[in-house]
């Protein structure tokens, strides 16, 4: 079908290309007199509706946008095609409030129109027919070639081996179809969810199926929870939800109603996320006035919901592009070219020898099936199947066997935190109260340095306030400063708050006393919570105001009133948060001198620290309910530190260290807050104990002169107290500076920086430069800012940042894809539904869950810890080396048989069916089946196995062995014809029955038997990726048996052997022994060539030497001054020069780095991309060359300062 570009008005098909260059053709559907939504959510009639369906979403053409422009004229910024929910993207908040207040809902006619346009609210995964799956498997190139091969063999009466290939292929196809079908069924069962819901339509409350919901419906949320079936905006009351399916955190979150404060603004689902109930989240409880029902308005349904987007990411993942597979097809093409030459040679020789047309056709086609082995797919799967069985024994299940090979190339592993690296909770360790030297008069008297406050000893009990300073205010702060709430009589909230509150032994009541039913009717209480201690029965404390925790502010606060106080305006503010934030808000005179020393000491041992402070307030109830947060969270008085133990799983540290020793980069990607992630990362070894950690942050609303959000970098207090390493060629300047959006470049630039002239960079000093002395950590919101406003820095950030916190599911997926773009082979390990998209996008997803994540991930571990990761990688490496070896073995077998047949075609002869059967069905089949039985090596090597099948070493190995085998066969072929007892072969005349037996054929068959065994042993590699040959006992037994059997066939052939194989007896025993000696020499030469030349010289020396020379050439190019020939990028039309950035520590230390990026016009031929690409491919000694550094991880290597930035 031929198509030409045309206007969208006349278009019948839409050709779609996504961001991964995957193309698809979709028909344009049309309907007359239809209705579509407007920007404000209302429905309007159009004379004609045009749309197409792409990956479960309907894209609608909007007539009043560029309707008569051709395809070539449409720019990328013209949103001509929009999804149905992108059209209604400017709904005023006042419209939503008006709909809620009317309490009427949609009419039946409106519901009918919306249902017709939006469709049913259901996420359905269609099962593809079995016949379709079978056809799609059969039409793959390998199976098509197998059909061709077995057709030729059946025509040549070589039926036994053809039947064996047919059976193996059918088994492989059935297994593939079964796995695909099982995966589809599991996904459908996971996402399908339908239940009855209450709505208001035409002013009447009614119950309908959730699949009948349409945008604009007024949904009634039941008091005691439900599973949300759509995305909706909350219009009244409060709702406590569990969003673990989206964020991975099981902490209940309180959603609040959309208020009239924003009625002039347009509703934005991201900015108003605190008002949105997302599909798939679990509503735990609703709260509103007695007798009133909580209402929400439906916003999005089906695949347009947040859950629908997650399901779409599973169904349509980014295609995995593994270089080994590409090289495999290229090598097959190389073999096909050889077979083409053999095809032409056969025709010419056969015509010269006067053979019949049928014989010429059969022999010519037969040479193609010999050169390109049809059994290759089955043989390649042997190593994978064995690895899969070994993984299953260790309770690791794989639903995508082809992914196992990919695991062999993994050089970065991303870990979720909660439930993956750590247990699902925290343990209380101790508290360190602050003791005032002047007994609470510290705020009234200016103290001398000798009278500063100090820490008391560690305390493990919080049930009693006796002996604590400030009348035990530290315990009071712990008991009141939290966001706990009661659901069905049970306390819920942040696990940390819950543990601390339970540790105090205090009790909490919300509002007036009452039964559980009244919980759902508590709303807008003046007195939301009453806290009662156990050591004073008459005391009670009322929490009248709560400032919720904010990750950007790193703290939360409450205002507490004690009814026993004589004055109603005597209140107390309690705050808790990160040690550095509370420190910045406290009066310095209330902070112990050794505060930072104590904080660093605990942090370095992996504890999570929370600082607590207070401030007396002279406010009444009215003022306390309206006072701004900034007005009271200042001039605080330090009360002490809470030390929490991060319960990292017992195996986590050992596994991370094992991966680090193997030079596999480890990254934490979590939905938890940044400081928690940083602490756990340091405890489990992702952040090294001897290195500093820097936080990359942004301040919303603070912009540079180009309108970009400013990015700041500060050192974490929990970092090591060691000084940042100085380098011989890098000077660290000690001055004060701030990171901000550069006015001259595309990255960051410091102010008031001083850079000394660096020493020349050499290859010997480069290793120290690569080893960075710090780690970076970033949160999801800041990552989003950098992605959108600083895209030129995303590659560098992903290459050096080790902790990504507060990451939403789509951000986790984006990070994985970004790592893949810079040539990392990525594994993702997680246990939650919020990890599904990242697990699916990674080259290898490893799930520790039996639920949603296991459907998206190729691997599922029944053991819920990360010990499965090195196991999967080691098995992947073993499978990859096995695949390399068995492919080279099958290629060597084909080329060996090709050389044999080429020799025999010269005399119009060919091997007999018995000889073919012995080689193909016994030697090759048995060795291929047992080749992958060698287990993985017991530890991970420091360097990964080669992933390039078309590398110089691999090609040299195959071609070299081919030359050796060809020479040996020619010697035997020629020597046979020179023997005095030699009888030449007489080819058949015309239609005579062909007698394929010949002396030269028998001699070549005898020597080639040994060559097949030699190839199997030569290509069966052992350590450091697989066990040695002796660990594969079945293959050892087969080798011994096959060698003895071949010796028997050559030296002492019986009549039965000669008749079965179709051999001709060679009269001379001396000549038969000569063949055995030639085979032994062949074995010695082949083994020596593979071990000494290929493994030692090419892999062990030559390639490293070439790469090191290339690096030295680039280093020699590095200029010491600015160069005019370096391209300068343009930002907002302003040409920029090279920019410098500075990493700041809390003490004002800074580390200079240089960034330089090319514009879209092209890449500088001396850019750092080439530099990094060379480094990333170097393996072995020296040690610094083994660090996996991906392409694009650095900027231009103009000055050595930049090299200190990377590792």
UniProtKB/TrEMBL annotation:
CDD domains the record matches: P-type_ATPase_cation
Residues covered by the P-type ATPase A domain: 193-314
Keyword DNA damage assigned: no
InterPro entries (UniProt xref): ATPase_P-typ_cation-transptr_N, ATPase_P-typ_cyto_dom_N, ATPase_P-typ_P_site, ATPase_P-typ_TM_dom_sf, ATPase_P-typ_transduc_dom_A_sf, ATPase_P-type_domA, HAD-like_sf, HAD_sf
Compartment annotation: Membrane
Reactions accelerated catalytically: ATP + H2O = ADP + phosphate + H(+)
GO biological process, one term: protein folding
GO cellular component, one term: plasma membrane
Membrane topology: Multi-pass membrane protein
Any single Pfam family the record assigns to this protein: E1-E2_ATPase
Annotated segments matching region Disordered: 1183-1207
GO molecular function terms noted in the UniProt entry: ATP binding; ATP hydrolysis activity; ATPase-coupled monoatomic cation transmembrane transporter activity; metal ion binding; P-type ion transporter activity
This protein's UniProt keywords: ATP-binding, Magnesium, Membrane, Metal-binding, Nucleotide-binding, Phosphoprotein, Translocase, Transmembrane, Transmembrane helix
Segments forming domain Cation-transporting P-type ATPase N-terminal: 104-153
Keyword Protease: no
Signal sequence region: none
Principal cellular location given in the protein's record: membrane
Protein family membership: Belongs to the cation transport ATPase (P-type) (TC 3.A.3) family. Type V subfamily.
Alphabetical list of NCBIfam families matching this protein: ATPase_P-type, P-ATPase-V
Name of protein: Cation-transporting P-type ATPase N-terminal domain-containing protein
Native organism: Caenorhabditis elegans
Origin organism lineage: Eukaryota, Metazoa, Ecdysozoa, Nematoda, Chromadorea
């Amino acid at each position: 079908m031929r198509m030409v570009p045309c206007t969208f008005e006349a278009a019948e098909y839409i050709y779609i290309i996504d961001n991964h260059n995957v193309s698809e053709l979709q028909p344009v559907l049309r309907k007359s007199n239809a209705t579509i939504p407007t920007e404000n959510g209302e429905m309007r009639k159009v004379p004609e509706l045009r749309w197409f369906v792409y990956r479960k979403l309907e894209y609608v053409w909007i007539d009043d946008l560029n309707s008569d422009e051709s395809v070539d004229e449409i720019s990328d910024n013209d949103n001509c095609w929009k999804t149905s929910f992108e059209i209604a993207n400017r709904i005023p908040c006042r419209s939503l409030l008006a709909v809620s207040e009317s309490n009427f809902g949609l009419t039946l006619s409106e519901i009918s129109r919306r249902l017709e346009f939006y469709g049913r609210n259901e996420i359905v995964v269609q099962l593809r027919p079995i016949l379709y799956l079978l056809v799609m498997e059969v039409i793959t190139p390998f199976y098509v070639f197998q059909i061709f091969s077995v057709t030729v063999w059946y025509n040549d009466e070589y039926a036994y081996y053809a039947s064996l290939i047919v059976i193996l292929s059918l088994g492989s196809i059935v297994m593939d179809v079964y796995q695909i079908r099982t995966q589809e069924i599991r996904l459908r069962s996971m996402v399908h969810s339908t239940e009855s819901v209450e709505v208001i339509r035409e002013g009447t409350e009614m119950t309908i199926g959730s699949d009948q919901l349409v945008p604009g419906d007024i949904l009634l949320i039941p008091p005691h929870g439900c599973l949300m079936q759509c995305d909706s905006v909350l219009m009244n009351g409060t709702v406590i939800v569990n969003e673990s399916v989206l964020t991975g955190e099981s902490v209940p979150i309180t959603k609040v109603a959309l208020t009239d404060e924003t009625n002039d603004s347009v509703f934005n689902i991201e900015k108003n996320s605190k008002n949105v109930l997302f599909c798939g989240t679990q509503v735990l409880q609703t709260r509103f006035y007695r007798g009133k029902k909580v209402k929400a308005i439906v916003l999005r349904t089906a695949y347009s919901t947040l859950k629908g987007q997650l399901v779409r990411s599973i169904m349509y993942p980014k295609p995995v592009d593994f270089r080994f597979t590409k090289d495999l097809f290229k090598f097959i093409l190389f073999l096909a070219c050889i077979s083409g030459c053999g095809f032409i040679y056969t025709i010419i020789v056969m015509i010269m020898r006067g053979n019949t047309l049928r014989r010429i056709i059969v022999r010519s086609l037969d040479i193609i099936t010999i050169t390109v082995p049809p059994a290759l797919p089955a043989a390649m799967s042997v190593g994978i199947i064995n690895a899969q069985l070994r993984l299953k024994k260790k309770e690791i299940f794989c639903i995508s066997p082809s992914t196992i090979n990919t695991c062999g190339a993994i050089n970065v592993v991303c870990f979720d935190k909660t439930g993956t690296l750590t247990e699902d909770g925290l343990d209380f360790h101790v508290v360190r109260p602050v003791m005032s030297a002047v007994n609470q008069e510290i705020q009234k008297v200016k103290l001398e340095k000798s009278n500063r406050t100090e820490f008391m000893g560690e305390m493990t009990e919080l049930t009693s306030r006796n002996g604590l300073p400030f009348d035990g205010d530290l315990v009071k702060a712990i008991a009141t400063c939290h966001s706990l709430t009661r659901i069905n009589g049970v306390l819920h909230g942040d696990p940390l708050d819950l543990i601390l509150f339970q540790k105090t032994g205090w009790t909490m009541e919300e509002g007036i006393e009452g039964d559980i039913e009244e919980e759902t009717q508590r709303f807008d209480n003046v007195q939301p919570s009453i806290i009662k201690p156990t050591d004073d029965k008459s005391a009670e404390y009322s929490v009248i105001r709560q400032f919720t925790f904010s990750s950007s502010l790193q703290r939360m606060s409450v205002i507490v009133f004690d009814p026993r106080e004589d004055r109603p305006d005597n209140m107390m503010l309690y705050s808790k948060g990160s040690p550095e934030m509370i420190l910045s808000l406290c009066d310095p005179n209330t902070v112990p001198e050794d505060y930072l020393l104590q904080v660093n000491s605990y942090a370095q041992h992996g504890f999570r620290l929370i600082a607590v402070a207070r401030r007396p307030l002279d406010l009444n109830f009215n003022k306390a309910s309206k006072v701004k947060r900034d007005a009271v969270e200042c001039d605080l008085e330090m009360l002490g530190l809470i030390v929490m133990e991060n319960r990292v799983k017992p195996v986590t540290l050992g596994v991370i260290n094992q991966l680090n020793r193997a030079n596999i980069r480890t990254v934490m990607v979590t939905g938890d807050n940044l400081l928690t992630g940083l602490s756990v990362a340091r405890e489990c070894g992702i952040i090294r104990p001897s290195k500093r950690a820097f936080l990359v942050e942004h301040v919303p609303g603070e912009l540079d002169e180009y309108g970009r959000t400013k990015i700041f970098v500060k050192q974490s207090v929990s970092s090591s107290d060691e000084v940042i390493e100085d380098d011989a060629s890098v000077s660290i300047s000690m001055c004060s500076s701030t990171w901000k959006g550069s006015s001259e470049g595309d990255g960051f630039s410091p102010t008031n920086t001083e850079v000394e002239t660096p020493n020349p960079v050499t290859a010997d000093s480069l290793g120290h430069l690569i080893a960075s002395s710090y780690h970076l950590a970033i949160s999801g919101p800041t990552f989003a800012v950098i992605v959108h406003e600083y895209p030129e820095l995303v590659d560098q950030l992903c290459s050096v940042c080790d902790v990504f916190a507060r990451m939403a599911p789509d951000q986790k997926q984006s990070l994985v894809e970004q790592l893949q773009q810079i040539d990392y082979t990525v594994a993702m390990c997680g246990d939650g539904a919020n990890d599904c998209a990242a697990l699916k996008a990674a080259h290898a997803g490893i799930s520790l869950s039996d639920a949603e994540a296991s459907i998206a991930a190729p691997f599922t571990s029944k053991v819920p810890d990360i010990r499965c990761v090195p196991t999967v990688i080691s098995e992947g490496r073993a499978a990859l080396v096995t695949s390399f070896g068995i492919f080279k073995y099958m290629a060597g077998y084909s080329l060996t048989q090709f050389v044999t047949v080429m020799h025999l075609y010269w005399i119009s002869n060919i091997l007999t069916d018995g000889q073919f059967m012995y080689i193909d069905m016994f030697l090759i089949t048995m060795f291929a089946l047992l080749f992958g039985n060698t287990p993985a090596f017991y530890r991970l090597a420091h360097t990964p196995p080669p992933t390039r099948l078309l590398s110089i070493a691999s090609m040299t190995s195959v071609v070299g062995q081919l030359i050796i085998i060809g020479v040996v066969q020619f010697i035997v072929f020629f020597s046979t014809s020179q023997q005095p007892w030699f009888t030449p072969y007489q080819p058949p005349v015309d239609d005579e029955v062909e007698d394929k037996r010949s002396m030269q054929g028998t001699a070549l068959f005898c020597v080639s038997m040994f060559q097949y065994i030699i190839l199997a042993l030569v290509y069966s590699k052992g350590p450091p990726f697989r066990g040695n040959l002796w660990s594969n006992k079945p293959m050892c037994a087969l080798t011994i048996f096959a060698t003895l059997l071949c010796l028997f066939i050559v030296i002492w052939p019986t009549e039965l052997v000669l008749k079965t194989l179709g051999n001709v007896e060679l009269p001379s025993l001396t000549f038969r022994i000569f063949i055995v000696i030639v085979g032994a020499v062949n074995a010695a030469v082949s083994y020596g060539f593979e071990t000494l030349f290929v493994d030692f010289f090419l892999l062990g020396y030559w390639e490293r030497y070439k790469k090191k020379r290339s690096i030295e050439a680039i280093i020699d190019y590095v200029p010491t001054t600015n160069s005019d020939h370096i391209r300068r990028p343009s930002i907002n039309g302003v040409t920029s020069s090279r920019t410098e950035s500075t990493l700041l520590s809390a003490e004002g230390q800074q580390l200079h780095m240089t960034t330089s990026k090319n514009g879209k016009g092209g890449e500088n031929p001396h850019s750092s991309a080439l530099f990094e690409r060379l480094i990333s491919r170097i393996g072995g000694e020296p040690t610094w060359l083994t660090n996996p550094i991906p392409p694009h991880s650095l900027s231009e290597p103009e000055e050595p300062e930049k090299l200190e930035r990377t590792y």
